[in-house]
Specification:
It contains eleven helices and no strands. Helix 1 packs across helix 11. The protein starts with a helix and ends in a 5-residue tail after the last helix. The longest helix is centred in the middle third of the chain and has 39 residues. It has one domain. The protein is mainly α.
Length: about 280
Amino acid sequence: MHERDDLSLFFSGLKAYLAQLENSRSKLTHLEQELQRARQQGIFIAGGGSGDCSSGGALAFDLEYARWLDDHQRHINNLRVAVIADMGDDELRILVESVLLHYDEFFRLKNLATKSDVFHVLSGMWMSPAERFFMWLGGFRSSEILKVLASHLEPLTDQQLMGICNLQQSSQQAEDALSQGMEALQQALSETLAAAAGAGPLAGAGNVTNYMGQMAIAMGKLSTLENFLRQGDLLRQQTLQQMHRILTTRQAARALLVISDYFSRLRALSSLWLARPRD
């Protein structure tokens, strides 16, 4: 009886997830309409070409990310068809490089969004809940992705295995260094704000001057947060590029499919979780 109930719950959640997928395009259209209304009301400054969210804020980035994800799925579908059809290396290489270039476009969009609203990018609110659970500095951990790939790339030559191991080790070291830098930034900000806590606007003129000085220092420290996010994305981008250099074309194609499937499953898990019965 319990198994039947579990299956019923599973299929109920799955049905909700599929319905969500079917409605994704209408949601994207709604988001575009919201952005257009916001621009007409003067909330956003008219930007340059397509993809420029430097003046569009969080909503513009969410829209661009939704478009990017839709395009990414088409790239992945084309790559999957080519792998299944055992397409030649020359044709497959073009598709692999196309996916990598599309990732480059994603990092470009994130860089623009970081300049506009660093906290929105850092919060990960543009991602699904399960993706946010694994998020590090506004994205995935390169070292964790390499672990996910480890069992899907065999057989590897000794040289390839050494290259992947070295890449994972260097990625982990870079992640640790950036994490320590973020902790140091948080500590420095906390100390600066604590020093300004007793010198608010209700204090004397001297204290107000001190308060403004401390807040200016805090703003200066906070500006380095953008650099941490850019460094995190640079690490992710370089990891994908290095992985491509280490692997054969066919292995790189498999790796990109595995990465895409991994994040697709996280998004599916999020949808199932949100659609679960609350009783």
